[in-house]
Amino acid sequence: MTKEVEVATEQPTEFSAKDYTDPPPAPLVDFEELTQWSLYRAVIAEFIATLLFLYVTVLTVIGYKVQSDVKADGDICGGVGILGIAWAFGGMIFILVYCTAGISGGHINPAVTFGLFLARKVSLIRAVLYMVAQCLGAICGVGFVKAFQSAYYVRYGGGANVMAPGHTKGVGLAAEIIGTFVLVYTVFSATDPKRNARDSHVPVLAPLPIGFAVFMVHLATIPITGTGINPARSFGAAVIYNHDKAWDEHWIFWVGPFIGAFAAAVYHQFILRAGAIKALGSFRSNA
């Protein structure tokens, strides 16, 4: 009687296969995109989404100032308050990113588009068209607010971003940089294919943390700058309001968000995702 011997098959000691796939980097310039309807559909989606975003949020700001103005028989504790304004911005981002993510990626913010362009998630052509559409949508959205609230729009500042009294421009710039860093870092993390593969059992929508990031940043920076972190939002309000105060400090709401987006892209792609180490390893293997 012979013993039955089980022969174990050899198991690989290292697993090189990943359970996720990183999409290939977008081309820097892809003229073929200009012939595709999907690009123009995405641009239209960004325009409409930014229009709706500015319409609802700026109208909320104006409504709050009307209801809380004690000089106009308002109640200082009336209206939605700063907390309600923050919820309006965060909630609208959650809704609109959810609606447009499958069409345009749901950027609704030139700073987000800039960060994703630096990470090679979108091409230069798409990034430029998105930014133009976002700014035009913002102008139209605030234009609707002025049309519907013409009696109060100019009196209560038009929803324009300006520095609050007692704060320097340097403080405002820093607030915009850090606030945008939080937002764009959240965008990268929420859409990271590695995280999606690892946490596939967790039913969390990507728009949810992005909306919460906008909400939290507004709570922190409304008392400083009114919270920009979105150059299109600041630009649309400044164009329609068109007062010197808004334009004098307007540069803060472009420079700050773009620096914050740049920092978030570098941090996520080259430190957290080890892009610099991978590039160095590739260089050494080819040497």
From TrEMBL:
<feature type="region of interest" description="Disordered">
    <location>
        <begin position="1"/>
        <end position="21"/>
    </location>
</feature>
<dbReference type="Pfam" id="PF00230">
    <property type="entry name" value="MIP"/>
</dbReference>
<feature type="transmembrane region" description="Helical">
    <location>
        <begin position="39"/>
        <end position="64"/>
    </location>
</feature>
<feature type="transmembrane region" description="Helical">
    <location>
        <begin position="251"/>
        <end position="272"/>
    </location>
</feature>
<protein>
    <submittedName>
        <fullName>Aquaporin PIP2 9b</fullName>
    </submittedName>
</protein>
<dbReference type="InterPro" id="IPR000425">
    <property type="entry name" value="MIP"/>
</dbReference>
<dbReference type="GO" id="GO:0015250">
    <property type="term" value="F:water channel activity"/>
</dbReference>
<feature type="transmembrane region" description="Helical">
    <location>
        <begin position="127"/>
        <end position="151"/>
    </location>
</feature>
<dbReference type="GO" id="GO:0005886">
    <property type="term" value="C:plasma membrane"/>
</dbReference>
<keyword id="KW-1133">Transmembrane helix</keyword>
<comment type="similarity">
    <text>Belongs to the MIP/aquaporin (TC 1.A.8) family. PIP (TC 1.A.8.11) subfamily.</text>
</comment>
<feature type="transmembrane region" description="Helical">
    <location>
        <begin position="171"/>
        <end position="190"/>
    </location>
</feature>
<dbReference type="InterPro" id="IPR022357">
    <property type="entry name" value="MIP_CS"/>
</dbReference>
<dbReference type="InterPro" id="IPR034294">
    <property type="entry name" value="Aquaporin_transptr"/>
</dbReference>
<feature type="transmembrane region" description="Helical">
    <location>
        <begin position="202"/>
        <end position="224"/>
    </location>
</feature>
<keyword id="KW-0812">Transmembrane</keyword>
<feature type="transmembrane region" description="Helical">
    <location>
        <begin position="76"/>
        <end position="97"/>
    </location>
</feature>
<keyword id="KW-0813">Transport</keyword>
<dbReference type="InterPro" id="IPR023271">
    <property type="entry name" value="Aquaporin-like"/>
</dbReference>
<keyword id="KW-0472">Membrane</keyword>
